[in-house]
Each structure stands twice: as C-alpha cells, then as structure tokens.
Amino acid sequence: xxxxxxxxxxxxxxxxxxxxxxxxxxxxxxxxxxxxxxxxxxxxxxxxxxxxxxxxxxxxxxxxxxxxxxxxxxxxxxxxxxxxxxxxxxxxxxxxxxxxxxxxxxxxxxxxxxxxxxxxxxxxxxxxxxxxxxxxxxxxxxxxxxxxxxxxxxxxxxxxxxxxxxxxxxxxxxxxxxxxxxxxxxxxxxxxxxxxxxxxxxxxxxxxxxxxxxxxxxxxxxxxxxxxxxxxxxxxxxxxxxxxxxxxxxxxxxxxxxxxxxxxxxxxxxxxxxxxxxxxxxxxxxxxxxxxxxxxxxxxxxxxxxxxxxxxxxxxxxxxxxxxxxxxxxxxxxxxxxxxxxxxxxxxxxxxxxxxxxxxxxxxxxxxxxxxxxxxxxxxxxxxxxxxxxxxxxxxxxxxxxxxxxxxxxxx
Length: 412
Known about the structure:
Elements: H1 9-18, H2 39-47, E1 66-67, E2 79-81, H3 88-97, E3 104-126, E4 131-142, E5 155-156, E6 179-181, H4 190-207, E7 210-215, E8 220-221, H5 228-299, H6 304-359, E9 364-368, E10 375-393, E11 398-404
Parallel strand pairs: 2-10, 3-6
Antiparallel strand pairs: 1-6, 3-4, 3-10, 4-5, 7-8, 7-9, 10-11
C-alpha cells in the first residue's frame, strides 16, 4: 500500500499544534549515483516491448518548476498529502491505455503540486415531505490563481479524511523524487486558507441542492436513499388506496339513490299487483252484470237500473285497466332510471381508476436547499496532489505526460 500516515479528525485538529517549521530547501547534490530501475518499472517496460533501460535520473534532472524539498511555509499553515493510489507501473499502463505509443521510457518521476481539499457535511431538511438527509462533500481543487478560488472547478474526491497523510511518498527509486512545485500566494498561509474556507462554506450554501421526486397529489416524496422501484411501489399502493376510497364514496352516494328508486319500484310493483287484482274483479263483475242483463232481456225484464249498473261496472273496469297501465309505465321508468344510475356508477368508477393510473406519472422534481446552519465545514487545507511525470520516446520525439497518482482516471 502507498498510503502514508493516516490522518484522523482529532489528528487534523492537532496537526498545527504538533507541526514544526519545514526546513528551507538545501542545495541538491551534484549527482545521484546510478541505481537499477524498480521491479515495477522493468515489468512495465517489458509490457511495452521497450528494449532500452531507462536512463539514470541525475539531480540536475529535477523537473522544471519543481524542487527536491517542499517549500518552506509558516508552521501555522496546515498541509496534507493525498495518498499514492497508483504506482509507477500502473501509471505506465494508464498511459498506454490512453493511446500513447511508448517505444522507450526515459524516466518516471513523482511530483507534488499544491491544491485544496475541502470536506464538509451538508444537511437537507424538509418537514413537509419528512426528509432529513446528511451528505458529505469531499472536493479537490487545483491551486487557485490570483483571481481567487472557484469551487465550480473542483472535482469529487474519493479519499476520506482518515486517509490523508502527513508526509509525501518516500518509497521511491533514486531519481524518482518526490519533487514539489511552489505554493501559490493565494493558499500559502493560514490566513489565506481561512478565507478559502469561508468561500467553501458560502459556495456549498448557495450551490448545494438535493433533488427529490415528489407527487403533490398523493403527498409522497422519494427518500434520498430510496430505490426508484421501491418508490413506484409506494406510489402505486397509495394510488390504489385513494382509488378505493373514492370508489367507496361514489358507491355510497349511488347506493342511496338506487335504494330510493328500489323502494319506489317495490311500491309500484305492489300497486301493480293490486291494480291487476282489482281489474280482474271488476271485469268479472262486469261480465256478470252483462250476463244478467242478457237473461233479463230474454225474459222480458227491461230495467234502466240494470243498464246504468252495467255502464258503471264498465267504467270501473276501464279505470282499473288504466291503473295497471300507469303502474307498468312507472315501473319501466324506474327500471330505466336505475339502469342509468348503474351505468353512471360504472363510468365514474372507470374514470376514477383511469385518473389514478395516469396520476402515477405526475411526478415533479423539488430541489432541497440547506440552511446556513446545515453546512458544517470539516476541513479546508492545503493538499499536495501526487502526479507521475512520464518521459518517453514514441519513435518520433520525446514526450512528457502527467498521470494522476491519487485516483484512477474516469472510464469513458
């Protein structure tokens, strides 16, 4: 492992207390005795079909713009070193993977350049949607220029605070360094770093957002750590419950109307039965009266009373028949009205079902913002960023390419 001196949070707080001034740069020796290349370098050369061994790196071959010792800074200036995650062999593999043609390796040196590491906890609270989420922001920013810090240029950093070191990488072959760049004036003192820390806190406050999916009608929000599938299941369950509740209310409303119609229908059916019985009775009386009149006629008994009685019975029979007709019409009207209500119930039930099916797609995105008190800066410090400087010949000319040594490059 190339991790050096893990730095815990208590150690970060004690770092300045325990720190001694960095010694001023001393004159480098005129030459570093030649040494055999590292096993990693030999293996990388073999993989690249390189036949010539790399030249010995002499002291005067310190990369331009770098020194063999770290710059002398005020002891109050906090410094950390990013861990070396990529060795020289892996750096060569990355270079070739990026399409470089390596015919001969001239040298591989480890350099450190000053940057800024910012680490903070940002909390997002939304009482309405029952969300309380804390996220950690770990960012790496190249050294700012004279125009100041621009945290928009920062990149996410996978390194945790406990992995930050106090010393540079030392297990290197002779001539590989490490070598150090100068520290810009914008971050070379504790006062400057305090200003950078304030900028970091402000930038997080104004730019940190936590997007969440919200369904306003169902009053549901996706939790920050909730999977999309689980959130959809919750939405479907809530929509189903709402749909069932609305259908129950609708059926209750229609049931009252149907009950009233059913009561009328039952009453009309009873009246129809009574009307039919009355009609049959009247008709029998009418026929009986007609029979008696016919007999009396043949027997020579003519009576105006008999004729009047027959006419009265006929009217009563006709009225009874009319009552039957009216009852039947009323029953038919009631049945049609009930059928229409049942059809309306069916259609409105289907409309409710469709409404809640379509409602599932009506999601909106809400961006939660932290409060000022929800931004807690844990660390802002000068950070030394390791980079491999690889010099090689591609058959046409000698090239020098940097390869980050603190993290694998993004794929794609």
